[in-house]
Amino acid sequence: MRKAKVARKTRETAITVEVALDRPRAGKANTGVGFLDHMLDLLARHGGLGLTVQAKGDAHVDDHHVVEDVGIVLGQALKKALGKKEGIARYGWAVVPMDEALVMCAVDLGGRPYLSYELSLPAKRVKQFDTELVEEFFRALVNAAGMNVHLRQLAGRNTHHVIEAAFKAFARALGQAVEVPGRVKGVPSTKGVL
Question: What is the pTM for the complete model shown?
Fold first, then answer.
């Protein structure tokens, strides 16, 4: 089974993430950042992942450290769970609507980190959540996991809807990319390694 548990402790945060790529179950996130918990639960559900996240951080400063560090540790856990990446689909893509919002995501698990982030979020906050942290989360995750992610907003005016569509699109694309469809033997690369 492809799974991993990664813990990271700094002076700002203490985070543990468990990922199971082959055993979908409801997500369980407890980060102290309510909106992030909701997005991580969506990621687990729509990506078909087993995902548990426990985080504590310096909320008296702001939520930035927790959100970014959860992205880092989740990326590390995904990378570890994927191992040598033998037989994976490698690529995934999805276009997801959420009411008036429409977001496209494409993922490549080829080992080269790159984030193309094109979301236009009109509101600076969703309740207490700073919407700038969405990009910080994805950038941290992409760099730690060594994945290429393109997020494009195709439509949308409601900030909550756009962010939720982005997480769902990422989840669906990631779910496709980690699948082991059985057609390809070995690593899906002409280099022979990812």
Answer: 0.95
